[in-house]
């Protein structure tokens, strides 16, 4: 790939609304399918961390303590990345192998190396159904709740002041269409276990950003994505201390990068949280893999509050799923095509939306005709012609029809965007026994 070196980074600040809309439209239009995303003017970040820093973002990797004696591994890690996650060393089993007896030696090894090399640290993970120490696996109820809170206090307290962001709770929702919480021993301590974990983390390390982290939450239309979104929305409404949402982003052919990825990231960001890609890896090789990496990078850069991307390992052979060759360096430490695509995307002027979209908008909601099983609602947007309206339907309601806008989703939160028919659009909802009027919010894009 040819890269032209031009103007200094800061010259790129101050992009127009139109450019943001164009970037978003390009994603929707199928950038992942191979449409070139190259922008006209490229800058000079020659490593992932330098290129990401140009738009105020970080580029990180997971590090395994057991590989820190491998000089090739450490050389690449030091050169390319400025955010470090311990792949396993800060998890519950590693940090509290016996109840009340903490062991931070491997976690410290990683955190200290990162800090000594001017990198920041993402903490992973304080509370999770998996990789619990054996003494915890057999616990239930209030004893487990107490043990979880003690664990969070002990680990987040130990690392106080050293962690940029903690994955406070990891993978708490079911896969599939239920949208339910995962049935785990932690969940069985009571539905408030997640917020209890966040409050404990806040009091242990008040300056760390606190994230909820999960996988299969990339496609906006998936039930799991909606369920996590609803939880975060509820947390923000009730003042539960949450600052960010992590999208693990483990992709393969059965779970490819969705074309609406930037919509997902933007909708979460609109709740008032940062979003981060936390464990990126994409099975595959060559151009197809590289284009998907580029698509993820582009999606993050299209969202102002997407603060950074972390890949889950350095070389393919370091990956938890090495046979998928899912990373940016091959087993010999060579840069793969995917590396070039990511670097170029980070350096692409059009890719980095560091300015929020200009303008604001409002939307009014009016319920109109109704029949036995369904009713119409009309939405009128004012303030901008480039908008996204999130519609909250009532419990049991589902979309039957829409007009004068593109509407995605069927129940829960629907997303409406202009389709060239002006600023008034409508939907027909099946009542499902619930005739309440939906609510809506507008974002200028
Ligand atoms: O350290 C032991 C070693 O002593 C032993 O010889 C060897 C063989 O059994 O196992 C080693 O431990 C393994 C550990 O990785 C370190 O390599 C564990 O068995 C293995 O289960 C563990 O896998 C980790 C996995 O989480 C566990 O759930 C992966 O490295 C790690 O990449 C992966 O990371 C998770 C994130 O935390 C959350 N999101 C999904 C992601 C991928 O599964």
TrEMBL record:
Key words of the record: Carbohydrate metabolism, Glycosidase, Hydrolase, Polysaccharide degradation, Signal, Xylan degradation
EC number(s) recorded for this UniProt protein: 3.2.1.8
Gene3D superfamilies given in the database record: 2.60.40.290, Glycosidases
Annotated CBM2 domain residues: 354-445
Source organism superkingdom: Bacteria
Family matches, as SUPFAM superfamilies: (Trans)glycosidases, Carbohydrate-binding domain
A family per Pfam: Glyco_hydro_10
Residues forming the catalytic site: 279
Catalytic function, reaction form: Endohydrolysis of (1->4)-beta-D-xylosidic linkages in xylans
Enzyme class: hydrolase
Presence of the UniProt keyword Signal in the record: yes
Ligase found in the keyword field: no
Leader sequence segment: 1-37
GO biological process per UniProt: xylan catabolic process
Recorded GO MF terms: endo-1,4-beta-xylanase activity; polysaccharide binding
Annotated ranges, domain GH10: 42-345
InterPro entries: CBD2 (IPR001919), CBM2/CBM3_carb-bd_dom_sf (IPR008965), CBM2_carb-bd_dom_sf (IPR012291), GH (IPR017853), GH10 (IPR044846), GH10_AS (IPR031158), GH10_dom (IPR001000)
Family per record: Belongs to the glycosyl hydrolase 10 (cellulase F) family.
Protein name: Beta-xylanase
